[in-house]
Specification:
Peptidoglycan synthesis regulatory factor (PBP3), Domain 2, alpha+beta, Beta-lactamase, 11 helices, 5-stranded antiparallel beta sheet, 19 strands, 24% strand, 465 residues
Length: 465
């Protein structure tokens, strides 16, 4: 029995030691309060490196970009040509590629020699398709190879729904983009100072003729379209694409990018003439943003947002969670800060000491009008040291709280109780056997005494007298 008990206890301790080893070891968008005619548009805040969208409609709907394509043509050229003064000649192939298409051209003749920089100005300011074809040939030898570079580049910056078949934007059903992708393309292109310089030029001269930028928002003579705070970047129009524009505006320290796709040409505001609504749309989006939105500090650094439990903390069982930094967000000018709600994200039930002041813990969504308008990192407000005593106590509690440990303890108790039961049973048996021996010995002694009594002869009695 002792041997069996020893084996059971050894097994239990082994399992227990194994158990010990195993267990120890998005930005808000708003609705403009005015009519926007475009089928797709995006208005983007350029003052934040995350480029938050403040207004949008059908941002992921495929649209035909028309000559907005030339934004990609220009940036691919700039990425592949280091010396813009290099010259190239109009070839027969480039000339004939747009002949009879009705596309806008600069009138470059076969054999005419122009610099890459001149061609970029003609491409971006005058939207000249013949200049685009010349650039494509200069960089890649032919238009098809250049288009491959265009598609590779847009894919490399994260455009998921854009495809080009030519460098000038002439209509093709397989030539498409979205407002979201067009915004990515433009923001990336604007990182190139040559692109900015060229695309924001309002007028150039070619063959003795002054050519205004095709973005009529930049031309004071067009009263309906002109917007003094606008600059650059590119327009586009075909029968299928209707009217498109990508442009930016700056006022009072605020900067926005507008992407407008498939806006109609129609009479508006009771006028008896048709208006190119792409420019009106962009202008209204800018005016709405400058009038209605402003930067507001929704959360200040070290502002208390919540708290979290601390395990094994010395003199503290919780720690406050505070904002890691100021959160400045573009919001409606009349925003009521008391209506802002903070909702923690991935907040742990507890954290273990030691805790260091400024330690990242979780995040919080800042909600206004049932919409998440910003996210803030939450950090520990103070340092909390580790209590070694509490750590040991809690470790013991945790250890004995494991299901496997509980099962093992039950097994040990059962083994011990079984052993005690066996010992008690054996003791009872031994007592019975001993009692039987005693009883048997007593009977034997009694029998011997009786036998002796049978053989005993009393001494003779003297005779009576």
């Amino acid at each position: 029995m002792k041997k069996t008990l020893s084996i059971l206890l050894t097994f239990a301790i082994f399992i227990c030691s194994l158990s010990l080893f195993a267990f120890s070891a998005e930005a808000a968008t708003y609705e403009p309060d005015r009519t926007i005619y475009a089928d797709s548009y995006m208005l983007i805040n350029l003052d934040d490196d995350s480029y938050p969208v403040v207004a949008e409609k059908n941002p992921d709907k495929r649209q035909y970009p028309a000559s907005l394509t030339k934004i990609v043509t220009a940036i691919v050229v700039l990425n592949n040509v280091s010396d813009l003064s290099q010259k190239t000649t109009m070839s027969q192939t480039a000339y004939e590629s747009i002949l009879g298409s009705g596309a806008q051209v600069a009138g470059i003749e076969i054999g005419e020699e122009l610099s890459v920089e001149e061609l970029l100005y003609l491409t971006m300011v005058h939207s000249a398709c013949d200049a685009s074809q010349m650039l494509a040939e200069f960089v890649s030898g032919n238009s098809a190879e250049f288009v491959n570079l265009m598609n590779e580049w847009v894919n490399s910056i994260g455009c998921t729904d854009t495809h080009f078949v030519n460098p000038d934007g002439l209509h093709d059903t397989n030539h498409y983009t979205t407002a979201r992708d067009m915004a990515k393309i433009t923001i990336e292109a604007m990182k190139n100072p040559d692109f900015v310089r060229i695309s924001e030029t309002t007028q150039i001269s070619f063959h003795g003729i002054n050519l205004n930028h095709t973005n009529l928002m930049l031309v004071p003579g067009y009263v309906t379209y002109y917007y003094e705070y606008a600059s650059g970047i590119k327009t586009g129009s075909t029968e299928e694409a209707e009217y498109c524009v990508v442009t930016k505006a700056s006022k009072d320290g605020y900067n926005y990018l507008a992407v407008v796709l498939k806006s109609p040409r129609q009479a508006i505001n009771g006028e008896n003439y048709e208006t190119k609504c792409s420019f009106v749309d962009a202008k209204e989006l800018f005016k709405w943003a400058f009038d209605s939105l402003k930067y507001t500090t929704l959360v200040s650094a070290d502002e208390v947002i919540g708290e979290v439990a601390v395990e094994d903390g010395k003199d503290a069982d919780t720690v406050q969670l505070v904002a890691k930094q100021d959160i400045n967000v573009i919001v409606p000018a009349g925003l009521d800060k008391s209506a802002v709600i903070y909702e923690t994200v991935d907040k742990p039930e507890s954290i273990s000491a030691p805790v260091v002041k400024g330690q990242d813990v979780c995040k919080a969504n800042i909600i206004y009008g049932d919409e998440v308008i910003a996210t803030v990192d939450l950090v520990a407000a103070e340092t909390i040291e580790l209590s070694t005593f509490l750590k040991i106590i809690n470790a013991i509690k945790t250890f004995f709280g494991f299901t496997a440990v509980k099962i093992i303890l039950v097994i040990i108790v059962i083994v011990i109780l079984s052993y005690i039961g066996v010992v008690i049973s054996n003791n009872k048996k031994r007592k019975k056997r001993r009692q039987k021996r005693l009883d048997r010995n007593e009977n034997e002694d009694r029998n011997e005494n009786e036998d002796r009594n049978d053989d005993f002869l009393p001494p003779p009695q003297p005779p009576l007298r």
